[in-house]
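Reproducibility note. Readers wishing to regenerate the assembly model reported in the main text can use the exact inputs given here. Chain order matters: entities are listed in the order in which they were concatenated for prediction.
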Amino acid sequence: MADFLTKKEDNYAQWYNDLVIKADLAENSAVRGCMVIKPYGYAIWEKAQAELDKLFKATGHVNAYFPLFIPKSFFAKEADHVEGFAKECAVVTHYRLKNSEDGKGIEVDPDAKLEEELIVRPTSETIIWNTYKNWIQSYRDLPLLINQWANVVRWEMRTRLFLRTAEFLWQEGHTAHATREEAEEETKTIIDLYAYFAEKFMGIPVLKGFKSDAEKFAGAIDTYAIEALMQDGKALQAGTSHFLGQNFAKAFDVQFTDKSGKLEHVWSTSWGVSTRLMGALVMAHGDNNGLVLPPNLAPIQVVIVPIYKGNSQLDSISQTALKIKSELEAKGLSVKYDDRDTHKPGFKFAEYELKGVPLRLAIGPRDIENGTIELARRDTLSKETIAIDKVTDYAVKLMKEIQENIYNKSLQFRNDNSYTVDSWEEFKESINNRGGFIYAHWDGSAETEERIKNETKATIRVIPVGNNNEEGKCVYSGKPSKQRVVFAKAY
RNA sequence: CGGGGUAUAGCGCAGUCCGGUUAGCGCACCUGCUUUGGGAGCAGGGGGUCGUAAGUUCGAAUCUUACUACCCCGACCA
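Running the prediction on these inputs yields the following structure tokens for the assembly.
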């Protein structure tokens, strides 16, 4: 057993921290609040990136890159936007260092002060809209569908690996459209795409919906989000898609001539997912033995471990193992054959469980003799021995099965931890004792939302979209409500 | 920013109260032999400006002062 990992039940937060570090995903760096993403963690991110990128391109988007630095004056142009981000911006004020007077080091050269200070981007709307202004003149230039993969900086007070760091990696899409309807459509297309990605690739079911005014993006008209439920009963926002109306177009004076010759401001959207998804992956599926990775995002889908005494045994086992490896690879699986002689099989078993490899194969002398091979599933921790000539097809089938099982398990968990609540007493008790998603009526006012937050720490995660027109009374104020919204404590 | 805490080998810690040979333990690391179907055993070995600076003292990891960094709890947030 992995008794060097804190148990999930004992201390969930500690379990998470341990796991991220011990599974080699990331570690804290010498820079406060900034993490180093290690090769194994980065490999998972790269797979996620590749899949998302395909989805973006399949929906007509292209990639580009905008600067890390944003002139301070750009930032001030959209009032809500500045207000939302002002408190967490890193600012570049100088462009040169010099040897200090006492000769003992270097210091900022006071003579090298920038004329205009630069903000390290916390998000890129302002620099992008300043640029789009020059790109858009006519309806013929629209829509403009651009994404960028980038790092951003938000100076957070308290940080946690992947979940909240001062610098993080993400993608941010920024689109411009001729009509409101088209921009709204784009916003929905993307949130659907995010939900599809979360469910199909990450194996995490998500709730889709609007954010309340208090929770939405600074500068947006509407924010859609996908919310996932972690195993400790807290919600995690996994992606957002914003309908920005004409806010940024007006702030940056981006106008186009429509077909009738009239000058109009463009309609826009922005949307993003970040390395925070890595945290979701850990917390949604991990167990006390370590990570559990969905096959669709696992850098190693199958690992083969030889069991042997002496070099001659290893040679004959390796022959078989390498043959299986290439057969599996021919079927499109990524396979690692771990023939390191410096570690014993037991060590390797534990290590690949810690790292969440979906399927482990073991071959020893007994198997060679019997024409068999041992399979161990990471998701169920079950083992079985099958005929060696059946292993390729079976492994391919298992990838699908494991992917589905992981998703279904998460879905089951979410269903078991979703509650419909109609009284304030029950609401408080539910939030405090069992966490999870709470479906309750809300009167729609910011005051009520704020009070609920102050009294319970629960926030409105999403206002579900569509077919939810059940009327009722606000769980807090008793005032009339048009539909239930989803409350939870959140990361 | 408020409140609390910590700083000794790559990591985790003991030693500090009550100053006194060569600063110690576990893990990790290196070498050798034996091992290999669930984190191997034995033997040997390497690694330290005790956070930084000043002070007290014959003598400081240990006492004093200042500084710095990090962690936890709050307020703020993807």
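We highlight two features of this model. Chain A has three domains: 12-285, 302-402, 418-488. The two ends of chain A are 29 Å apart (CA to CA).
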